[in-house]
Specification:
By secondary structure, the chain is an alpha+beta fold. It is built from 7 helices and 18 strands. The termini are far apart.
Length: 342
């Protein structure tokens, strides 16, 4: 089935769609010996060349479809920048990543030089763009150490929203994780990733952030075994979950019924020997008594469902139980095989 050239090359990890469109306009890409045009569709068997160098799509041997993208989890230490080019010559996260052939790592969002924690990289420009786009509302969770204590009124203000230069900034959830002296730890969740947004939101209520660590991005959490400066490949199931969250699962190869899916990415094994000098609260160690401040969801649900037609009344005719769909709340515990329901 024909696909857009810039879409296939972005999925292959050569860059974003916009970047590849610029390559096409500049005459850097040819298809079957002819200069490519923006919006052109091709078959995977067509001969593609970039800067006069042949490019071959990596396909699954069984299906002939493009391989699932590779996704890397990196525990960024403070002091590194998320950029390949820096006039000041500061350390870059890209220097710590494993090398690729015929592709490049694309950062999913950024963390400033004074922040650390979970940072995702992928070889798919489409996946990276969708994970960052506010339309998909992918949650980001941060462990934040501030100087001072957040009052209940301030917490509600941060949940309702703070007017900033680039729009309204708000948290979806705030959890109090305690602290000692003037330092206090909180876990906050938001669904976008604007520049220094977490720091600016706290600053709006007079609290200075002294440390910021990202501990979760979507359904991917920072494992305690991955120390600062280390990176690991995500498992195929985790990659499939990310693709599903942004509507790309149908465009990638599904696992076969026998359980044999796409080729498992190799572990990078690149680990840093940096000592862990500073303590860091982890998501797994969340105290059960943590105070939670959460924005009421009733208003949001009402606004979303205002234009939806009312559902038809349910039929009283008994029907067979349906399995719960992925991502939906479980209404009741499924009956185990061979056991009659009471």
């Amino acid at each position: 089935m024909p696909e857009r050239l810039h879409k296939l090359l972005a999925a292959a990890g050569l860059g974003s769609r916009r970047e590849i469109e610029e390559w096409i306009r500049a005459g850097r890409i040819t298809v079957n010996g002819v200069l490519a045009t923006v919006g052109q569709s091709i078959e995977l068997r067509d001969r593609v060349a970039i800067d006069k160098k042949p490019f071959r799509f990596k396909l699954e041997s069984k299906t002939g479809k493009p391989r699932a993208p590779r996704v890397l989890l990196y525990n960024k230490p403070e002091g590194e920048i998320v950029s390949r080019d820096d006039p000041e010559g500061r350390p870059s996260v890209f220097a710590q990543l494993p090398r690729l052939r015929g592709a490049k790592w694309i950062a999913v969002g950024r963390l400033d030089i004074n922040s650390g924690g979970l940072l995702l990289f992928t070889t798919s420009g489409d996946l990276a763009n969708r994970l960052m786009h506010p339309r998909y509302e992918i949650e980001r969770e941060y462990a934040v150490r501030v100087m001072g204590v957040l009052s209940k009124a301030q917490a509600q203000q941060l949940l309702q929203g703070i007017a900033m230069e680039d729009g309204l900034g708000k948290f979806e959830l705030i959890e109090d994780h305690g602290g000692e002296g003037s330092n206090h730890w909180y876990h906050v969740v938001l669904k976008e990733g604007r520049k220094r947004e977490v720091r600016r939101i706290f600053q709006a209520v007079g609290l200075m952030v002294s440390r910021l660590i990202r501990v979760r991005y979507g359904n991917i959490t920072l494992p305690p075994r991955v120390k600062r400066g280390q990176s690991i490949d995500l498992e195929p199931a985790q990659v499939q979950a990310l693709l599903s969250a942004v509507g790309l699962l149908g465009e990638q190869e599904e696992k076969s019924p026998s359980g044999k899916g796409s080729e498992r990415p190799e572990k990078t094994g690149r680990e840093s020997s940096r000592p862990e000098k500073t303590e860091r609260p982890t998501r797994n160690a969340r105290p059960s008594t943590a105070k939670r401040f959460e924005r009421p969801a009733s208003t949001e649900r009402e606004s979303r469902g205002a234009d939806k037609p009312s559902r038809a009344p349910r039929s009283t005719k008994p029907s067979a139980a349906r399995p719960s769909r992925t991502g939906q709340a479980r209404s009741e515990k499924p009956t185990s095989p061979g056991r009659k329901s009471r």
